Amino acid sequence: MRVNEIFCSVQGEGRYTGTPAVFLRFSGCNLKCHFCDTDHSSFTEMSEEEIVGIVAGFPSRHIVVTGGEPSLQLTSSFCRRLHEKGFFIQMETNGSFALPGDCQVDWITCSPKSAPVRIGHVDELKVVYWGQDVSCWEKFSASEHRLQPLDTKDEIKNKEILRLTLDYIMENPLWSLSLQTHKIIDVR
Ligand code: SF4
Fold first, then answer.
1. Which in 3, 62, 83, 165 has the greatest CB count within 10 A?
2. Residue nearest atom 8 of ligand 1, based on CA coordinates
3. Which of 17, 48, 106, 182 is flagged as catalytic?
4. Span from the CA of 112 to the centroid of ligand 1 (angstroms)
5. Which residues contact 97 (CB under 8 A, 6 or more apart)?
6. Phi/psi class of residue 129: alpha, beta or left (left: φ > 0; alpha: ψ in -120 to 50)?
7. Residue 109: its H or E element
């Protein structure tokens, strides 16, 4: 498996905001979003056993498998090994690939980007928002719908986008707000 980094922090976004978690960031993605914050050029090739050995050394039993695009690398045997160590597996995906049917994860957070979503149902749909039309996502099969303001790295623009996001969810309460709280509290 091509691993970009493994670290422990708190989940900053979405339903599990504030939860202590181990982050397993895979390298490699089928998309090229301009706002991507993963360096896909650097990775370490690691076996499933090596990864499980490292992540099990942290106290948290909530693991966030993220990317890159984790569905390109997740396997059923890897998920089984994580479950054997007591992990709750949260996958953050762009949704453009269906997971193999025998690959068991406990929570799917899908943040759709420029490609069609091919996962039938997700636990949490998290759309990065900057004021675009998101009505096409309102019928998408998800237990929870969240809008997350785009981080433009420009404080003034970010405030405008946050205002747009709040206005939208107040008018359309199917949606709730997801903030990148790890940036607010300045942790990874
Ligand atoms: S889908 Fe995610 S990981 Fe892939 S390029 Fe876009 S932001 Fe980066």
1. 165
2. 36
3. 182
4. 9
5. 30, 69, 71, 72, 118, 119
6. beta
7. strand 107-110
Q: Mind listing the pLDDT tens digit of every residue in the chain (188 residues)?
A: 999 999 999 999 999 999 999 999 999 998 888 778 777 778 999 999 999 999 999 999 999 999 889 999 999 999 999 999 999 999 999 999 988 778 899 999 999 987 888 888 899 999 999 999 999 999 999 999 999 999 999 999 999 999 999 999 999 999 999 999 999 988 98
Cα-based torsion angle of the residue sequence 44, 48, 54, 57 in order, rounded to the nearest 10 degrees: 170
| Token pair in block for residue 44 | 């370490």
pTM here?
0.93
Task: Measure 42 CA to ligand 1 centroid, in angstroms.
Answer: 15
Cα–ligand 1 centroid distance for 129 (angstroms): 15
**For residue 74, what is the domain's CATH number?**
3.20.20.70
How many structural domains comprise the chain?
A: 1
* Pocket of ligand 1, beta carbon within 6 A: 29, 31-33, 36, 38, 67-69, 94, 113
- Choice from 32, 43, 69 to test ligand 1 binding pocket (greatest atom count within 8 A of CB): 69
Range of the domain at 144: 2-184
